[in-house]
Specification:
The complex is a heterodimer of chains A (513) and B (321).
Chain A: H1 4-19, H2 21-43, H3 51-75, H4 80-85, H5 88-93, H6 98-118, H7 121-130, H8 135-162, H9 166-197, H10 202-218, H11 220-228, H12 239-263, H13 276-285, H14 296-304, H15 308-333, H16 338-365, H17 367-371, H18 375-379, H19 385-396, H20 401-413, H21 415-426, H22 429-449, H23 456-474, H24 480-512
Helix pairs in contact in A: 1-6, 2-3, 2-7, 2-23, 3-6, 3-7, 3-8, 3-9, 3-11, 3-23, 6-8, 8-9, 8-11, 8-12, 9-10, 14-19, 15-16, 15-20, 16-20, 16-21, 16-22, 20-21, 22-23, 22-24
Chain B: E1 14-25, E2 28-39, E3 43-47, H1 54-61, E4 69-74, E5 77-78, H2 83-88, E6 90-93, H3 105-115, H4 120-133, H5 149-161, E7 167-171, H6 179-194, E8 198-203, H7 206-210, E9 215-220, E10 223-229, H8 230-235, E11 242-247, H9 254-259, E12 264-269, E13 276-280, H10 287-296, E14 301-306, H11 311-320
Parallel strand pairs in B: 3-8, 3-9, 6-7, 7-8
Antiparallel strand pairs in B: 1-2, 1-4, 4-5, 9-10, 11-13, 11-14, 12-13
Helix pairs in contact in B: 3-4, 4-5
The chains are: A mainly alpha (513), B alpha/beta (321).
Chain lengths: 513, 321
């Protein structure tokens, strides 16, 4: 079942990873970040009652954040990237079994994640000497984090075995992780609401409650909160650790069982038609096929990257339902007027949705052209690269219309919240800092998408977030003007230079395309 | 398809001119002092072995790459400073399929027509024309991804025609096509030449272009080895004039004795026949002298004509040195 070929795969992956500067850079940045956290606490030790605990908690949440990012890209594409490169058949011909391919692909990534966690250990142990955290807490936290990596690796292997494309597997992973963390909370709210109205029987309600409790207990979030509390007394291997490890292994087993069925017919990789496939052929047969807009590039990206009008309508409907539900749930928790609560909830939710959507589309804007080798064809149009990029960007804008429409509705419902939001954004240093760093993050994501095949989105987020964390850790004693002014200035300068660098890179890619 | 309205070049006037062009990829020099020109309304073959620099030269002409040394003019326009005007007047079909395969044939062509700035009313007519020319009218609503390689190649050709360019650059358009698709492609190219288009077609197989092209440039290891007419290539002799002698019966020792005649450089048999190829130094002996010497050696001459090398032989001679 597992032969020499499996080890050859593992060895090759590890060798490639080891030779890549990126691997060591990520580890170095991570170790540096922890060092900065330690220095920051040491410098301001008087203001902490338990400095070690403070450092440790920050490290834990940083790991939680990065592991989730890795889950969406690093783990979710483990088999799909072989499918897209059409190399699975070659691995099979080399006599490597399904289990061999799975283990050969998954284990190097898991080892990579484990190495990233292990690199922090010496620094983390230092937090024990700073006080406020015990050795048991450190061990329990790392056991939880490692088991969560196993869960992500197993789930990633399963999703990438079932899905034919990396972006579908990543989207499914995003949906499942969101449901995993938000699901129990929503289920609790719904159960409580149903209980008050007498819709559910006592047994069913109790069953749902138990399920929600178990789901919550299985999440790393809850486990880290428990471990980081001062009352933590063990066990070192908690429910979350056992659940994550078991679930990860079960996912791997299911992936192995489905592997042959899902990878039997290797189809040549081709860009998907997406939601355009739903209606366009029928409309065309009726002679009603929509023509390409005069702005052809915008038409293409609107229809084939963002999903077109169909996706816009689906998104509008889904957002309306979700935000309506969230407004009802929030209004029951707070004592403000329903209209204000609804407006504020809608505005907050749409901004969150935009913060997710914008980098998602930007990371794919040029990557898809490069992936399908269509970029040189666009560069050869009688226009500059900047013109092409601008019009491609225009094509993505309609995709934000549902969020924009809902934001406007929220603003009409709660004008006070809007004024407050605008004041906090445009009249404070922090607001400008967040805004400029967000723009910088988008540009970094675009630049990274031109250089690395996958993972530009999490990498871009990680680079900007890490940079900011380091800066705020060392600048906390400075005046707000300097603390916020420096990142704003850096972002403004970088945002002026990055378009030029991106433009040059796009030209180079066309030359070699 | 209509003729291009933007100053169509006069037949025979140079459309593409490369002067002392050199290009490097890091330390590797892909093109070394390349100079050649292509006349208007001609079908020009651009031939060389794999890695000879054909694609690099085509990318320089189509403005995807900037020449690091030398000058390139297309329709008299500088490819660096006037790249947008150059792009408007040419169509480049690369050697690999780089298509939006999720689109239908019609969407794909409509997309490029719109991207070139054609108004909607004109797009409909142009698209119908190019679909008819490439015989793809019946497949207009098919997804490109579902088409065969030959069909995709036709769509690729239709795409470069939507802006009605005067110059077409086709990089290995026949590679990977079956014989039927290859013949059909060549017919389309002939039709395009008939419409006054200038076509540069690259290939690593000279014989593939022999019947199609008016002129040819042979490139090897970044240097131009030959540039001229196809007929000239066949006559082109690297060293000595060579004639083909046809005896009425096989030569025995006479061939060796003929080779020893003063002025005759080489006598070699022609494979698959009793003929011999006689190369001579024109400073010492002329054609009549060779014929006379043969007859004096007792050879009954049934035929004596200027030897034309086989295309592949010419290609090999030029590229292996």
């Amino acid at each position: 079942m597992i032969g020499r070929g499996t080890f050859a795969l593992v060895e090759r992956s590890l060798r490639v990873e080891t030779r890549m500067a990126r691997t060591h850079l990520v580890r170095l940045i991570f170790a540096l970040l922890i060092l900065v956290l330690l220095v920051h606490v040491q410098l301001d030790i008087d203001s902490y009652s338990t400095p070690g605990s403070d450092v440790f908690q920050r490290i834990c949440w940083l790991n939680f954040f990065l592991l989730n990012l890795a889950g969406l890209s690093f783990f979710a594409t483990v088999i799909t990237e072989e499918k897209e490169e059409m190399t699975l058949g070659l691995l099979r011909m080399a006599g490597i079994s399904s289990a061999g391919v799975l283990l050969g692909k998954v284990s190097p990534r898991l080892i990579g994640a484990a190495l990233l966690l292990s690199v922090q250990m010496p620094f983390t142990l230092l937090s024990i000497t700073l006080g406020g955290v015990t050795q048991e807490q450190v061990i329990a936290a790392y056991a939880g984090l490692l088991s969560y990596a196993v869960l992500l690796a197993g789930l990633g292997a399963l999703l990438s075995t079932v899905c034919s494309r990396s972006n579908v597997a990543s989207s499914l992973m995003t949906g499942l992780l969101t449901a995993f963390y938000i699901g129990p909370v929503m289920l609790q709210s719904l159960t409580n609401m149903a209980q008050r109205r007498g819709w559910l029987s006592a047994e069913f309600r109790a069953g749902l409650g138990r399920f929600a409790d178990a789901s919550e207990a299985a999440s790393l979030w809850t486990a880290l909160e428990r471990i980081n509390s001062t009352s933590f007394r063990g066990p070192l291997i908690g429910f979350q650790t056992v659940f994550s490890t078991s679930a990860g292994l079960i996912c791997l087993l299911i992936a192995w069982a489905l592997f042959d069925v899902c990878t039997r017919n290797e189809k040549p990789a081709a860009p998907p038609r997406g939601l355009m496939a739903l209606f366009s052929k029928r409309l065309a047969s009726l002679g009603l096929g929509a023509r390409v807009w005069d702005n052809a590039l915008a038409w293409k990206d609107f229809n084939f990257m963002t999903g077109g009008l169909t996706a816009m309508l689906i998104k509008l409907l889904a957002y309306s339902v979700l935000m309506g539900g969230a407004s009802v749930a929030v209004s029951r928790q707070v004592r403000t007027e329903f209209r204000d609560t609804t407006g504020a909830t809608i505005m907050f939710s749409t901004l969150t949705a935009l913060a997710v959507e914008v980098p998602m589309y930007l990371s794919r804007l040029f990557r898809e052209e490069l992936r399908w080798q269509t970029w040189p064809g666009l560069v050869l149009l009688p226009h500059s690269v900047g013109w092409v990029a601008k019009n491609k960007l225009l094509g993505t804008l309609p995709a934000f219309a549902p969020s924009a429409v809902l934001f406007l509705i929220g603003a009409i419902l709660a004008p006070g919240f809007l004024t407050d939001f605008l004041e906090k954004t445009f009249l404070t240093g922090l607001g400008w800092c967040v805004l400029t760093q967000f723009v910088l993050m988008q540009m970094v994501i675009v630049l990274l998408s031109l250089s690395i095949k996958w993972g530009a989105l999490p990498m871009g987020i990680a680079v900007v977030v890490t940079g900011n964390l380091i800066w705020f850790a060392v600048s906390f004693r400075l005046s707000p003007a300097v603390m916020y002014g420096v990142p704003i200035a850096v972002a403004v300068v970088a945002c002026s230079l990055l378009p030029l660098i991106i433009g040059r890179r796009l030209e180079q890619l066309a030359e070699h395309g | 398809m209509s003729q291009s309205s933007s100053h169509p070049p006069a037949a025979g006037a140079p459309v593409v001119e490369l002067r002392n062009v050199a290009h490097w990829f890091k330390r590797f020099q892909a093109l070394i002092d390349v100079s050649f020109s292509v006349p208007a309304c001609s079908l020009h073959g651009f031939v060389g072995p794999n890695g000879a620099g054909k694609t690099t030269a085509l990318k320089l002409i189509c403005t995807l790459l900037r020449p690091q040394q030398g000058e390139i003019r297309v329709f008299g326009l500088d490819v660096v400073r006037q790249y947008r005007d150059v792009r408007r007047r040419l169509g480049f079909m690369p050697d690999h399929f780089s298509m939006y395969r999720q689109m239908t044939v019609y969407e794909y062509l409509d997309f490029f027509a719109a991207a070139y700035g054609l108004p909607l009313a004109q797009r409909t007519k142009v698209l119908n024309d190019v679909l008819e020319l490439t015989d793809m009218s019946g497949r207009r609503e098919d997804l490109i991804n579902g088409l065969s390689r030959g069909m995709q190649q036709r769509v690729g050709l239709a795409r470069v025609l939507v802006n009605d360019p005067d110059l077409l650059l086709l990089d290995e358009p026949a590679s990977g096509l079956d014989p039927r698709a290859r013949i059909e492609l060549m017919e389309i190219l002939r039709a395009l030449r008939g419409m006054g288009k200038t076509i540069i077609i690259s290939s690593h197989i000279l014989s593939e272009l022999a019947e199609l092209c008016d002129s040819v440039t042979i490139i090897d290891r970044g240097s131009v080895k030959y540039c001229g007419s196809m007929a000239g290539l066949l006559d082109h002799q690297a060293d000595w004039p060579t004639w083909r002698l046809t005896p009425d019966q096989p030569l025995n020792g006479q061939a060796d004795r003929l080779a020893k005649v003063t002025g005759i450089v080489m006598v070699e048999p022609v494979e698959g026949s009793i003929d011999v190829r006689v190369s001579f130094d024109p400073a010492q002996i002329d054609t009549n002298g060779v014929l006379r010497a043969a007859m004096e050696l007792g050879i009954t001459v049934a035929g004596f004509s200027k030897a034309q090398r086989h295309l592949n032989q010419a290609f090999m001679d030029l590229t292996e040195k």
